[in-house]
């Protein structure tokens, strides 16, 4: 099982950042919460701060954890470990994703999410 962290980044207006995977990634064009695989010896929190800097070019702080979701894709099982986060500095520059948008909480489920993310979206909407 691969452990993957992801960031539910909330802005000052309460909107949530959704990021679209590019056409050459696995799960092409699906929407996700940015993040990535935990490296050996790394904490989930440190992983997420590193990944967000690499992918979005911003610094974040972690606000709160949400329940992890284990999901079996045909070729891989991942444990997706979410944290609610805030940007502390920088402007978003996409380094890997195709697109991003800020979405109202009650409109999140309308996006075409990576399957593992749907449960996380629901946890967040109920939180
Ligand atoms: N970062 C991230 N990955 C997710 C999410 N939902 C989801 O199913 N994944 C999957 C996609 C990948 O199989 C795996 C890790 O994604 P990644 O973005 O860090 O790694 P990657 O593109 O290099 O993965 P891969 O193409 O090598 O399989 O987790 C999510 O919300 N955020």
UniProtKB/TrEMBL annotation:
In the UniProt record, does the keyword Hydrolase occur?
A: yes
**EC number(s) given by UniProt:** 3.6.1.55
InterPro entries in the record = MutT-like, Nudix_hydrolase, NUDIX_hydrolase-like_dom_sf, NUDIX_hydrolase_CS, NUDIX_hydrolase_dom
Q: Catalysed reaction per UniProt?
A: 8-oxo-dGTP + H2O = 8-oxo-dGMP + diphosphate + H(+); 8-oxo-GTP + H2O = 8-oxo-GMP + diphosphate + H(+)
Keywords, alphabetical: DNA damage, DNA repair, DNA replication, Hydrolase, Magnesium, Metal-binding, Mutator protein
Q: Which family does it belong to?
A: Belongs to the Nudix hydrolase family.
The protein's name in its UniProt record: 8-oxo-dGTP diphosphatase
Species name: Mucilaginibacter rubeus
């Amino acid at each position: 099982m691969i452990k993957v962290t992801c960031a539910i980044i909330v802005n000052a207006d309460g909107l949530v950042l959704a990021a679209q995977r590019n056409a050459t990634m696995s799960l092409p064009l699906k929407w996700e919460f940015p993040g990535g695989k935990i490296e050996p010896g790394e904490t989930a929190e440190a992983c997420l701060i590193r990944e967000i800097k690499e992918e979005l070019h911003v610094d974040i702080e972690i606000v709160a954890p949400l329940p992890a979701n284990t999901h079996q894709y045909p070729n891989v099982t991942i444990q997706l470990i979410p944290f609610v986060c805030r940007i502390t500095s920088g402007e978003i520059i996409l380094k890997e994703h195709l697109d991003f948008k800020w979405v109202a909480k009650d409109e999140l489920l309308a996006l075409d999410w990576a399957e593992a993310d749907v449960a996380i979206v629901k946890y967040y909407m109920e939180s």
